[in-house]
Amino acid sequence: MEKHFDELALIETLDMGAPLVRTRGYKSFVSQLILFYASQTAAGGVQTPAELAAGSLHDVQDQSAGGVVGALFPWNGPLISQWWILGPTLATGCTAVLKPAEDASLTALRVAELLVEAGMPPRSGQCGYWLRK
Question: What residues contact 3, with CB distance under 8 A and at least 6 apart?
Answer without folding.
Answer: none
